[in-house]
């Protein structure tokens, strides 16, 4: 016999939890379902634990650069201690989330949800009917079809390893590979990156990523661009042999103790049996209209990384979409999702950040491009940071700042200031006329524009 609810929410991250909480607060009966520990990717397997590891790597990086400039022997990362510190953030999450659900009166179900008709889900031994259904199942690693791809370690698994291997190969050159590679290198591992494209971190400005690549190589990383991983085998010695191929057909094999999947992620929809639920989906995820509603099954909504929308796979946007879903479930007037500025950062060392128009997107538009090599500026010299660069795009007609692309210390914080500037159509003159606390990275904005 089925148990009925006003709302079924599949997924317990930001994309589902906001809608679950708001509808519950409005008096709806709500069930939330997850086949993994409750709390979602960001808090347990993504942004938050990664940033804990980055914090230690950053401390080692700064101390290393200042060695001989006032500091003696730099510290080293103790991987076991660092992982224990990381777990102090991640391990309480699931239990705390389930306590909160219980206190709120939201029923929690553990298991994989799949449609049995347009309004019913099967979860383990339970059958749940929903007047409305929100799908927020996030993403998972892109399936790779070459021989031995199953030998790759996922980012989730990397965040749980108790001992850091001596040699690591990363397949892919995006966020996961680059952020984890910089952590691993600062912790003493030898790192090799296999990237099929001609530059790293493709969403970011190429001049920024080229500088990051140079800094990474100077750190001792081996970076192979325009190179595909085509085969992985276990060796007699117990490590992995990763065979690569370049466009000219030349193959080369590299060995390592660990090979990590960093070749992108895709919407996590396979287990849902969307066809049975009459829910359309494509490569970009679940098909939704401007109200984040399935056109083929209007009782179903999708939010976060699993939805095929213009939003980037970023935690704040998942939460914003979940708010839109809640607005549309609870309100009389539909609210369309809108996507404005989407600042993004890669927490490499040094980090990258971007917001607004890229040079490619501005093609055909009259813009001024203001570039500055910041490495000789005081803010960077005082910490011996030799990689720092800013590119700012200004609309030639309105004189408003329309894009910013940064690499260097505090880039993720500075991009937030540029986001405000672009949103409020500020001009370089507006920035120059603003008094900032000095000397800070923020006060450098006056000279970047």
Note down, in words, how this protein is organized.
Helices cover 30% and strands 26% of the residues. With 449 residues, it is of the alpha/beta class. The strands form six sheets. Strands 1, 2, 3, 4, 5, 6 and 18 form a seven-stranded mixed beta sheet that branches. The chain has a five-stranded antiparallel beta sheet with strand order 20-21-24-23-22, with helices on both faces. A hairpin with a 2-residue loop joins strand 5 and strand 6. Helix 1 packs parallel to helix 8, helix 3 packs antiparallel against helix 4 (79-104) and helix 3 crosses helix 6 (175-186). The chain starts with a strand and ends with a helix. The model has no long low-confidence stretch (mean pLDDT 95).
Give a brief description.
The chain is built from twelve helices and 24 strands. With 449 residues, it is an alpha/beta fold.
Percent of residues in helices comes to 25-40%
Low-confidence blocks of residues: none
Taken from the alpha-carbon principal axes, the silhouette is globular
Total count of helical runs of at least 4 residues: 12
User: What is the rounded distance between the termini?
Assistant: 65 Å
Number of strands: 24
Mean pLDDT: 95
**Mind describing the biggest β-sheet?**
7 strands, mixed
SS class = alpha/beta
- Rg, alpha carbons: 24 Å
Strand content: 25-35%
């Amino acid at each position: 016999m089925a148990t009925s609810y006003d709302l079924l929410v599949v997924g317990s991250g930001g994309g589902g939890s906001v809608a679950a909480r708001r509808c519950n607060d409005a008096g709806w009966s709500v069930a939330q379902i997850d086949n993994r520990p409750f709390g979602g990717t960001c808090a347990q397997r993504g942004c938050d634990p990664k940033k804990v590891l980055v914090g230690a790597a950053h401390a080692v990086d700064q101390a290393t650069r200042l060695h001989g400039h006032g500091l003696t022997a730099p510290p080293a990362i103790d991987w076991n201690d660092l992982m224990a510190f990381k777990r102090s953030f991640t391990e309480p999450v699931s239990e705390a989330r389930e306590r909160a659900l219980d206190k709120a009166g939201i029923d929690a179900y553990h298991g994989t949800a799949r449609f049995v008709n347009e309004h019913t889900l099967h979860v383990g031994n339970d059958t749940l009917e929903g007047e409305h259904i929100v799908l927020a199942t996030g993403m998972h690693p892109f399936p790779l079809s070459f021989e031995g791809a199953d030998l790759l370690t996922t980012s989730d698994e990397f965040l749980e390893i108790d001992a850091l291997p001596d040699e690591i190969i990363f397949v892919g050159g995006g966020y996961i590979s680059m952020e984890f590679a910089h952590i691993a290198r600062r912790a003493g591992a030898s790192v090799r990156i296999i990237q099929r494209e001609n530059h790293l971190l493709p969403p970011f400005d190429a001049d920024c990523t080229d500088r990051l690549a140079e800094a990474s190589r100077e750190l001792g990383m081996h970076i192979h661009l325009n190179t595909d991983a085509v085969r992985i085998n276990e060796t007699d010695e117990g490590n992995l042999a990763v065979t690569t191929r370049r466009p000219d057909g030349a193959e080369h094999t590299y060995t390592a103790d660990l090979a990590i999947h960093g070749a992108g992620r895709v919407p996590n929809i396979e287990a849902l049996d969307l066809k049975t639920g009459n829910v359309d989906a494509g490569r970009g995820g679940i098909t939704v209209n401007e109200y984040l509603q399935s056109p083929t099954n209007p009782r179903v909504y999708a939010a976060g990384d699993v939805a095929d929308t213009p939003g980037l796979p970023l935690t704040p946007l998942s939460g914003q979409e979940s708010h839109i879903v809640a607005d549309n479930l609870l309100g009389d007037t539909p609210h369309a999702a809108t996507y404005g500025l989407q600042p993004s950062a890669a927490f490499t060392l040094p980090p990258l950040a971007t917001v607004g128009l890229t040079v490619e997107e501005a093609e055909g538009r009259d813009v001024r491009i203001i570039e500055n090599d910041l490495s000789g500026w005081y803010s960077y010299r005082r910490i011996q940071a030799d990689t720092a660069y800013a590119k700012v795009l200004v609309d030639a007609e309105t004189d408003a700042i329309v894009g910013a692309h940064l690499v260097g210390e505090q880039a993720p914080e500075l991009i937030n200031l540029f986001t405000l500037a672009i949103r409020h159509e500020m001009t370089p003159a507006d920035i120059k006329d603003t008094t900032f606390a000095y000397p800070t990275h923020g006060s450098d904005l006056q000279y970047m524009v």
